Structures are given as C-alpha cells and as structure tokens.
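Handout, section B. The chain below has 97 residues.
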Amino acid sequence: MYLAACGLVASSLLLGTWMGGLFETTIGADKGPTRSGDAWTPISMAFVIVCTSLILINPNPIDPHWLQYTLLLALPLFVGLGARVLLARRLARDNEA
C-alpha cells in the first residue's frame, strides 16, 4: 500500500515535469522552434497513476478519497509543473546574460 502511494506521488511528479516541458521550445540550427518531449512518457506515467490509484482505493492511507488524491496526485503534479517552468525561466535568464 505505501509503495503504491510513493509510486503515485513519483509518477504524478514526473508527469507534471513532463507537462512543464510542453511550454518550452528549442530553436534548431536549420529549422524553426520545435517542441521537446517524448510521447511514451505521459502514456506510461498515466498507466502507473491509474494502477496505483486502483491499488489505493480499498486500504486508503488518507481517509477521505478527495484529500488522498489531492495530496498524492494533484499536489505533486503541480509541483513538478511549476518546478520545470521555473527552472526553464531561470536557465533562459542565465543564458541571456
């Protein structure tokens, strides 16, 4: 049960980090802006999220389900998204200087 909770947090954090990469564009030498990202990352993370969520239905570690999924799924997703966006802005600012 606790391994599934850790897996849910880790996979939602990674999915949020991948989603943050959707806002980034890279300039290629011979072509215009291209988006970076791999299509298998969100598919595999969504699969892990669904499987670990199904494991945590019956012996839930946090009593109300809405609070459990807010803390174990939504919060790490937004933390990963925000961390990736902030890191990209900081690196872009450092490269300009």
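Note. Residues 2-25+35-96 form one domain. Compare this with the example in section A.
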